[in-house]
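Question (not urgent): is this output format expected?
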Amino acid sequence: MAEATRYADEIIDDGFPWYAIRLFTTRQGEVKSYFEEQGFECFIPMQYVEAEGHDGRTHRTLRPVVNNLIFVKQSDEETTFRRVVQQADYKISVLRKAKDSREYSLIPHRQMYEFRLMCNPEVTMRKFLSIEQVQLKAGEEVYVKFGPFKGLSGRLVRSSKKYYLLKEVPGLGIMLKVSRWCCVPIEKKE
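Got this back:
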């Protein structure tokens, strides 16, 4: 539980929106380092995976959930960010508002804050979904009023006879197991 609390304490909501960047390279760590060297904060959703080591034992290692997606905080002017993207030596694409638009899509700060909290690798009852899978899920917009996820919002969906809080951002979705009794519809959150 201490690990989960420490992770939550490291995540702050400073009011800045985020960009989602699709990668066309296998060097996700290098792309992240590039943006961090340019002064941008980055986020890659991680999860623990059981992998067999050289000694034949299974080890728990932290790995990215998806290898072709990285989130970058808009802490500077968009013109600066565009210049950094154009100067990158990697093939990348910033998600746009529409296919024919030159405007970058921005993830609101509150939505990204909640998404990052839900991506805590110490939480075991969660599932990551592709954007196509997210669109297939029907659910009511809810607010978690009680329990360890108090304050989060999303859609309440059902999967495998269990209830999950679903949060989506461009390119990815995450579901956390919750009790439906601790959730209230958005309009009744008082």
